[in-house]
Amino acid sequence: MNAITGEQFWTIFDAIKMDKDRLTFMELMKDNGFPFQMVLNPVVLENDIPEPSELSLGDMLQTFCVSPYSLPELMDQEDIRCNHEGSSPDKVAEVFTKCFGEEIICPEESYYMNKKQTIINCLDRMCDGEADSLEVDQLITAFEKLGHKRA
Question: Of 37, 57, 68, 92, whose CB has the highest number of CB atoms within 10 Å?
Fold first, then answer.
């Protein structure tokens, strides 16, 4: 497999509409040596704070948390309501752990908070945005079951 950039990965990931297909794509990329950690954290600044990169872990996570019913402009699209079929919070947590490792640090959150922020911290903050808080809570629980913790 030819190497692709983080930008190319994100373009393909973003074009995939079904959650289960996004998870399958992530697993295939990991199995074929896509360097998730290097793309996600290309530059580590002082105090182990990663500089945000073109691949935003927060944006990736949010695609699995945004309820299709919470965005009025999407409600007219018939296929958007089934995007979450075939995936579960446990499967999302499993694939992200496989791709990003046992300790998932969110570069964008860490950079803006000026201290390490884990995937759980990132999910905590999503409740204030467009994400569906029930789905976020279920994802937090799934990640915690796999041993992920807050910073």
Answer: 92
Alpha carbons within 13 angstroms on the beta-carbon side of residue 92 total 28
Asked whether the whole model's pTM tops 0.70, one would answer yes
CA distance linking residue 7 with residue 71, whole number of Å:
25
Report the first-to-last Cα separation within the chain, whole angstroms: 36
DSSP-assigned letters across all residues of 57-125: HHHHHHHTT--GGG-GGGTT-GGGGGTTTT--HHHHHHHHHHHH-SS-B-HHHHHHHTS--BHHHHHHH
Q: Which residues contact 76 (CB under 8 A, 6 or more apart)?
A: none
- Cα angle 71-124-7, degrees, rounded to a multiple of 5: 65
Q: At what angle do helices 119-126 and 133-145 cross, to 10 degrees?
A: 170
